[in-house]
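Usage example:
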Amino acid sequence: MSKFDLVIKGGTVVTASDTFKADLGVKNEKVIEIGIDLCTEGAEVVDASGKYVFPGGIDPHTHMDMPFGGTYSSDDFKTGTIAAACGGTTTIVDFAIQQNGKTLKDATDTWREKADGKAVIDYGIHISVTDLNDDILNEMPEIIKQGYSSFKMFMTYDGLRVDDGTIIRTLMKVNESGGLACVHAENYYVIDYLTKKFREEGKGEPIYHALSRPDLAEGEAAGRAIKLAKIANAPLCIVHNSCEASVSEIARARAEGYPIIGETCPQYLLLSEDNYREPDFNGAKYVMSPPLRDKKNWPTMWKALKDNTVQFVATDHCPFFMKQKEMGKEFFAQIPNGAPGVELRMSLMYTYGVAEGKFDLNRFVQVTSTNAAKVYGMYPQKGTIAVGSDADIVVFDPNVEIVATKSMLHENVDYTPYEGFKLKGAPVVTISRGSIVAKDGQFVGKEGAGKFVIRKAPTLI
Ligand SMILES: [Zn+2]
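Running the assembly step on the lines above writes:
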């Protein structure tokens, strides 16, 4: 019997804290040895010479097969995870949405049905709490025990949003039960007022999507949620920060010693409000919430990512075909909110983060993998390369130069917001629990091979 099932040979291993040359020996889905000149007899060998060997990417914010505005996001757990795998991501965490009047278990059952037997890489599931009462609060400890340890609340969107009472009660209950509360921070009333005003004024083009959701509406909601977390004495994660207005609130709270966590996404680092002005309804491609911001926010966002005000980069992957986007041809508020991004996250962050000198390789691993694993209770099973950890690994070639275009991607949608972006560096082999699932940008894995990840209490960073 051979010592290893798989050996990754001759690469430069990069973790959140170290960079060193070594081989990795994999057996029964785990890394079992890290060393020099490991025995390859009888093992499958991946030649990683001249390449980086990173922990597989973790995208902790996706929306596969998600109902929104009378339609569904166009990637399901099969197509969406194939795209993720081809892009070097080995774990996603998606959001199960609680339906009004239904239990949290109903939500997790619905999402497990969408994911189980379909996903090609591992997946965790957050819960979006939309309709809170005492029964739901009492359900939380058991749901957390089952591995659904994070709960997001929307502060905006009709039908999904919760009030401050729900936020404070959820913060307290989730924290005492060993989970983590999260918010989508935008001020509902500001957006509602401006949307109605623009409707009356006949302003329906995609740019008004951005103008109806000003950065201060995000900053206000983030600041309010942080104050509620302080009152509850609970940690809080603010997802998809887009601007200085919200990250300045996080920075202040963290400086005061409060456990506030922040996420951002490539679109808020690389795209801007100007994209909404593209002609022929092209601006609809970028309709997502929070909206893309004035580019003057970019330096602040990159700095926040570098200095750990923001700890990780997710995508908020929620694609819709242009045909679906046309539901809002007359009025921006009817455009389904969301855009694709799951497949390009690793290459974009390497190119514009590492290759452009904004941060180093170890920080790249932290923001694309390790920190999300810690915050969302998956570490050290996921998010690192260590003896005993799942063999979720991406072999990454830093010298590949390509131009992003829709036709090379596997996302089930007819555009990419990053069309024409120059990429330096790309994943060449993606390994999920010891099995090669993608090679040179093509999927070679198996439908249904992904497993549900039982997540535990957060490690705050
Ligand atoms: Zn989202």
